[in-house]
Amino acid sequence: MRSEASTLVQLITPPTLNHQRQSDRFYSKNSEELAADLLILEGDDVLAFPVRLADISETGCAVEISAQFNRDIPVAILRIRDIGGTVNLELAGRMCWNQRTSLGANTCGFCFRRPLSNEIIDQMVDNGWVTRRLEPRVRTGAIVEVRRAHGLPTIGMATLQDFSMTGIRLTLNSEVEVGERLLISNRAEVDQYDVDAALKSTKRIANGGVTVKWVRPTDDGYECGCVFQNLAASRAINDAFSTSGLMAKH
C-alpha cells in the first residue's frame, strides 16, 4: 500500500474537472465478474472500500457503495480488476457527487484525473462486462427510409436491424459520420399496403430523429448505431415497429 499512499498524497490538489460527463457511458452488465475498491488516505493509512461499478466512460464512472460511507474525500484511487486477471486498473480522481439511492447504499460519481483509453473500454465491452444499452433490443429487419440533415445527399432505404427505447442499429449502403443527425421513417413499410386500402388505413407514417454514435464497414456497405434525439422520436419508432408484421421473433 506504500505506493498507493504516495500516489494519493501527490494528488491532494487535483485538476478542476467538469461534473457533467460528455463522453459515452457504458453500463455495468456482468458486475459479478468485476471487483472494484475505492482507496482513500486517512493519515498514513490507505483504506479500501468495496464498491460496485454502475457505469463507466472515458472521463468518469458511477459506483455504488455502502450507505455507511460518509467521508468527504478530495481525492481517491478506484481499483478495478476482473476475476480472470486480464484487467487491473488503478484510476486516480475525485468524488464529485454522492447521493442515497437505496436503503443500504449510495451512488457516487467519480471523475478521473486522466481520461481512460478507448482500448480499455472496448476490451470491457468485448468481454461482456459493460454495455452501451440499458434497454432490451428488438430484432426487426424492416426497410426504413433514411434522410440526412443539413442538405446532405439523401441516403434512401436502409435496413432497421434492431431497436430499443434508446436507439437503433441500421445497415445501409451509404457511409454516415459519427455525430450526424438522421431522420428515420417507416414510409416504405406503409407504402407496401397500397394494394389494400383497408389495411393501409390502419398504418401511420412515423418519423424519428436519431444521432449516429458509431459506424463500421461491412461486406455489403455500412452498419451504424444511433440514439434517439428525444423521447418523441423513441416512441414514434418503437410504436411503429413493435406492431410491424415484418418484426422478427426474438
TrEMBL record:
Coiled coil: none annotated. It comes from the Bacteria. Gene3D superfamilies: predicted glycosyltransferase like domains. Residues 21-122, 132-232 form the PilZ domain. It holds the Pfam family PilZ. InterPro entries: PilZ_domain. GO terms for molecular function: cyclic-di-GMP binding. This is PilZ domain protein. It comes from Neorhodopirellula pilleata. The lineage of its organism: Bacteria, Pseudomonadati, Planctomycetota, Planctomycetia, Pirellulales.
